[in-house]
Amino acid sequence: MPNKQEETTQFIVEQLVKSGIKLVASLPDDWVSDLIHAIDTDKRFTHVPVNREESAIGLCSGAYFGGIPSLALMGASGLMTCVYAITKINYSYHIPLFLFTTLRGAIGDPRAHHISNGLYLEPLMNSISLPHLIVDEREKIARIPDAFKHSQVMNRPTVVAFTEPVLRGEA
């Protein structure tokens, strides 16, 4: 019998399928390791592990031109390193990009070395007018297809950011 974390992971995967996602480019992050594993073993997706966040941005942006709905999956610090790529490529050329990230450093994260992520991720997204959905309760997972559609309709990047309790099946 699956536990709450496995159920939550599967719920997220089903929302990706519902969104039509076919390609996922990811970087490792322990908060999303179960999600990465679920995507990697699910034949409905092509999973491409990448070594840099900008590679995920480039791969998913290129997939758009090939008509392949995609997702870039990375940690919060990785997303913060991609501001130039997002604003130069995706904003300038109106290329939709769907991103998942973690809300490291948010209230409740016991890891002090992630405090800068908690302080700056949301203000950074707001400062570059990057639409985002904060998933801080399980019910919001069902809005993933809406966030993906928003990215496609607006021809802009859109971020879905998860808290650790949600990913662990605790919220």
Write the layout of secondary structure elements.
Layout: H1 4-19, E1 23-26, H2 33-40, E2 46-49, H3 53-65, E3 70-73, H4 76-80, H5 83-91, E4 97-102, H6 115-127, E5 132-135, H7 144-154, E6 157-162, H8 164-167
Parallel strand pairs: 1-2, 1-3, 3-4, 4-6, 5-6
| Overall shape | globular
User: How are the strands ordered across the major sheet?
Assistant: 2-1-3-4-6-5
Number of strands: 6
What is the CA-atom radius of gyration, in angstroms?
15 Å
Query: Beta-strand percentage?
Result: 15-25%
Low-pLDDT ranges: none
The helix content, as a percent range, equals 40-55%
Mean pLDDT: 94
Major beta sheet summary: 6 strands, parallel
Q: State the helix count.
A: 8
Q: Can you write the helix and strand succession as a string?
A: HEHEHEHHEHEHEH
Structural class: alpha/beta
Distance between the termini: 19 Å
Structure description:
- This protein has 171 residues and is of the alpha/beta class.
- The protein has eight helices and six strands.
- The chain has helices at residues 4-19, 33-40, 53-65, 76-80, 83-91, 115-127, 144-154, 164-167; strands at 23-26, 46-49, 70-73, 97-102, 132-135, 157-162.
- The longest helix is centred in the N-terminal third of the chain and has 16 residues, at 4-19.
- It starts with a helix and ends with a helix.
- The mean pLDDT is 94.
Short description, anyone?
The model has no long low-confidence stretch (mean pLDDT 94). Helix 1 crosses helix 2 and helix 3 (53-65) packs parallel to helix 5 (83-91).
